[in-house]
Amino acid sequence: MVYQKRVNCFIEVLKNQSDLFTEKDRIELAEIINQIPEDDDETIWQAISHWLQLHPNVKEAHNINLKNTESSPLPDKHLGPGGSKPEKSPDKPTGEPTVLQKLKNEINPHNPLDPPKQSP
To answer: What is the reported pTM?
Structure first.
């Protein structure tokens, strides 16, 4: 869950602060993300974290976004009756994009299913 939260914060930076990302950055990210074979939050976060080490402005924006998210916790949409925790975590709703799909869509918002192509 921690990794998913961090990846979602990164997606928010991509979405809301797109000016921080050059076309080259988006191409690099697409190449990295397209190498991830499955929707594994830890693997996705490790790839993003490594990329952030080389992009301090984006890393700073991500850290601020993460801090803001942690200081204002979102209500749990999957609480049981009376706000109790459910016995079993609910399954992911069908048709909802995975974290990996959301990330790919934000990296290349013009064509959400395909990675950006490099210019010749």
So the answer is: 0.72
